[in-house]
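Let's study a protein:

===
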Amino acid sequence: MNSALESRKSPNKQPSSRGWTAAAPVLRLRELPVFIALSVLVIVTYLINPLFLSAQGVKDLLLNATIVMILAVGQTLLIITRNIDLSVGSILGLVAFGTGSIFAAMPDIPIIAVFVIGMAFGVVLGAVNGILVTVAKVPALVITLGTLYVFRGLNNAWAGGKQYFAGDRPDAFGALSVDTFLGFPIITLVAVVVVIAVALYMSGTRPGRDLYAIGSDPDAATAFGIKVSKRVLLAFLANGALAGLAGVLYASRFNSVGATTGTGMELTVIAAAVVGGVAIFGGSGSVTGAALGALLLTTITSSLTAVRVDKFWQQAIVGILILAAIIIDRVASLRTAKKLRISEARNV
């Protein structure tokens, strides 16, 4: 009788176990907490101020996140390899002012050509960082801190007190940040395409997976035959290209570009990547998480403004998020390492 009862009960337990097993990969996603935090933030803000999710409000949220999303994708490629680029704001500023200069000199130039020139300019600036890091073997933090000021100085010398305004560019170029497709701003769709393309590259190609191997253990990656310097240089080039793309889109999005364009943006970009689950110590994270982190940070600013919270608290909350993300990542890494040691001890 007891065995019969047990056999009847056991089928009821199996589906539950299978359900948890199926859900486990989703629950372990590093991006899940970011998505939950973003959802809660949007819902709470909407309940306080319903205009927050009006058609124009949603459009503004997406536009505000677009530039940071693209920059965060490029930054993620570097952070995963245990590198960083503090000069992305300066690269964006140079390319944005260069975009204004191109339209001032050649008003009839095709817009696609401006994008190509801007991204090529970004690649050149990214190559400067990449070559100094990989050839001179100087830490990326030191190199890019220096080029941050070098590139900013070049922009100051080039621009001086001059600014290019919305009226100096073709209407079709400015329309990229005004026109929508299926309710999404055109430049936001560009950012989404970038995120998807890079995410597929990172997960579906050998060079993309090599970046994770380099970040996890550079020496082991070298021993395994991975060309570490080449991969890191390519990551800097890709980051430069994306910063160039962001610079062109910035010139379309905002009313003016000048010597100070992009100042301080590098900190927001790094924060977006870290908050989005990219490990600051390298080896893990995703560009999808970085994009969500960018959306979360810009949404925090917008939501706190919508509920009329002082700007100081906006910055404080962002700082708390960064600290929390780093601490949680570090604790998770230590727990994983402990479990690995216990497992190895048992196998011995």
The longest helix spans residues 311-347. Confidence is low (pLDDT under 50) at residues 1-17, 20-24. Strands lie at 164-165, 180-181, 184-185, 256-257.
